[in-house]
Automatic annotation (TrEMBL):
<keyword id="KW-0413">Isomerase</keyword>
<dbReference type="GO" id="GO:0003678">
    <property type="term" value="F:DNA helicase activity"/>
</dbReference>
<keyword id="KW-0547">Nucleotide-binding</keyword>
<keyword id="KW-0238">DNA-binding</keyword>
<keyword id="KW-0479">Metal-binding</keyword>
<protein>
    <recommendedName>
        <fullName>ATP-dependent DNA helicase RecQ</fullName>
        <ecNumber>5.6.2.4</ecNumber>
    </recommendedName>
</protein>
<feature type="domain" description="Helicase ATP-binding">
    <location>
        <begin position="28"/>
        <end position="197"/>
    </location>
</feature>
<keyword id="KW-0347">Helicase</keyword>
<feature type="domain" description="Helicase C-terminal">
    <location>
        <begin position="218"/>
        <end position="366"/>
    </location>
</feature>
<keyword id="KW-0067">ATP-binding</keyword>
<keyword id="KW-0378">Hydrolase</keyword>
<dbReference type="GO" id="GO:0016787">
    <property type="term" value="F:hydrolase activity"/>
</dbReference>
<comment type="similarity">
    <text>Belongs to the helicase family. RecQ subfamily.</text>
</comment>
């Protein structure tokens, strides 16, 4: 192990922080001691530091398995800005760049190597990693392993075998912001991490204000809200790419500095739009859910759902991107039952069990939107957490008379 003083000094020196947050220190020591860890913490809690700091203090290179190129780039840029040698290996690199990264890893100067599961799967990379001095393996956004999690990626299911082929003794740390117990169990089982130390904190994001609004005059409401918070960073989530384009155009013609983000855009455009948002050249990102996983922008002040999400889990993850700096964030969901019906129609060609599951998720969404009592209480109870008191910081707690009323009587029948 490493003395607490040395660890704290490194925290200050590299990241400029004077205190660890929550269980960060215990998690870091667990990896250094050679044990497996399973970390369950909400978005913004500071999971990255739990593998970045041990990577810096331990000899060798830490492998960070990460699902998105954009996310790797975001983290590598941050680490490099802190003076740490971090690199990534993914499909965005040329052959020459790949060779350079590999040579640097073998020479022992790289502290963090970010890699996509697809790249990890390649035989040539396995051979290379077997020759390198690896300190431990981090699996970020580990919910991608579970078919019950959003963003499921099948290649993820082979990860444990691959890690063992690199070196059977490597400590593993899996991290996720997934709040559902079902996904948590699935991750632990799939990674064979039943013997890992589990670090779990509350999923309550106290600084986020939850609000539901009617979709009536939504465009006017949206423009008014954003103009009332000009200069503040925000994300508008829309269901379709088409809608993303429409809304970002609408905001632009109304003098709001906005850019679109969705998987249909050219990768170069996507990357530069993301960067413009991260670098504060643009205030508002209008996006599909393709945007945001793991992206660290601390000062997002509002997350607005233009359309209803498919599940409360998705809603919780997307709203979680607000207020990472601990300051207040506002989460507004524009709701109409018609959106639920639309989402339900998308599922019509699915297998019966899948369709039933999707309906169940939607019915939870409907229930949440129509709720007359504390939203946070309901949100957390959905994730198995009990809150004794009302939160005092949601629309229902703060403005009970103005509570949103569904414009239609909801009769949700699970008839599959
Ligand atoms: P997560 O991956 O859990 O969503 P991040 O790792 O992106 O969260 O961290 C969220 C924010 O918290 C980042 O801006 C990060 O710099 C900050 N942070 C992390 N640890 C600390 C700490 N000990 N003190 C202050 N800020 C921290
Ligand atoms: Mg993260």
């Amino acid at each position: 192990s490493i003395s607490p003083d040395v660890l704290k000094e490194q925290l200050k020196k590299t990241f400029g922080f004077s205190q660890f947050r929550g269980e960060q220190e215990a998690i870091i020591q667990n990896t250094i001691a050679g044990n497996h860890s399973f970390v369950l913490m909400p978005t913004g809690a500071g999971k990255s530091l739990c593998y970045q700091l041990p990577a810096i203090v331990m000899p060798g290179t830490a492998i960070v398995i990460s699902p998105l190129i954009a996310l790797m780039k975001n983290q590598v840029d941050q680490m490099v800005a802190f003076g740490i040698n971090a690199q990534f290996l993914n499909s965005s690199l040329s052959r020459a760049e790949i060779n350079r990264v590999k040579a640097e890893v073998i020479s022992g100067v790289v502290k963090l190597l970010y890699i996509a599961p697809e790249s990890l799967n390649k035989q040539e990379n396995l051979n290379f990693l077997q020759q390198a001095n690896i300190s431990f393996v981090a699996i970020d956004e580990a919910h991608c392993i579970s078919e019950w999690g959003h963003d499921f990626r099948p290649e993820y299911r082979k990860i444990r075998t691959i890690i063992e082929n690199i070196n059977a003794k490597l400590p593993i740390i899996a991290l996720t912001a997934t709040a559902t117990p079902k996904v948590q169990q699935d991750i632990q089982k799939t990674l064979n991490l039943e013997d890992a130390t589990v670090f779990k904190t509350s999923f309550n994001r106290k600084n986020l204000y939850y609000e539901i609004r009617s979709k009536k005059d939504i465009d006017k409401q949206l423009i008014r809200y954003i103009k009332g918070h000009s200069g503040k960073a925000g994300i508008i989530y829309c269901l379709s790419r088409k809608r993303v384009e429409e809304i970002s155009d609408l905001l632009l013609v109304n003098g709001i500095n906005a850019l679109p983000y969705h998987a249909g855009l050219d990768p170069q455009v996507r990357m530069s739009n993301q960067e413009a948002f991260l670098n504060e050249e643009v205030d508002v990102m209008v996006a599909t859910i393709a945007f945001g996983m793991g992206i660290d922008k601390p000062d997002v002040r509002f997350v607005i759902h233009y359309d209803a999400p498919k599940s409360l889990e998705g809603y919780y993850q997307e709203t979680g991107r607000a207020g990472r700096d601990g300051l207040d964030g506002t989460c507004i969901l524009f709701y109409t039952y018609d959106d639920i019906l639309k989402l339900d129609k998308f599922n019509k060609d699915k297998a019966v069990s899948e369709k039933e599951n999707a309906k169940l998720l939607l019915s939870e969404m409907v229930y949440y939107a129509n709720l007359g009592v504390c939203r946070r209480k309901q949100l957390l109870s959905y994730f198995g957490e009990h809150m004794a008191e009302n939160c005092g910081f949601c629309d229902n707690c703060m403005h009970p008379t103005a509570t949103f009323k569904a414009e239609k009587e909801v009769t949700w029948v699970l008839d599959a």
